[in-house]
Specification:
This protein has 114 residues and is of the alpha+beta class. It has a domain of 68 residues: Alpha-Beta Plaits (2-Layer Sandwich), CATH 3.30.70. Helices cover 22% and strands 23% of the residues. The protein is built from 2 helices and 4 strands. The radius of gyration is 29 Å and the shape is flat.
Length: 114
Amino acid sequence: MAELTRMLIEVNLQCSRCCKKIHEVLCKITHIRDRIYNEKQNTVLISVCCSPEKIKRKIICKGGKTVQSVEILPKKPKTVRFNLPPKETAKQPAPALVPELRRKAHKAHPQKAP
């Protein structure tokens, strides 16, 4: 599976035409995996699986004036924690086995003749 790159698009989401336009543009691009619309900050956060530069160019070309800016977010470095104590690997006492309860076979009820 390819690495996912996150991108931040600034669009006026308060405008219904701009919101509709960016929605149509993002739906046409097949390499976009996730879309998160933030109406308060007027941004759209997307995850792409291929080269983000190509996707950025497509969004700017197809979006026109509705797209205010497109940013490629830096990847978060993997944090390696060496100072953590190792997990306790002491053997836990095994749970006591509960004897299996057997159901008694019940006799078939005789059917009454009509």
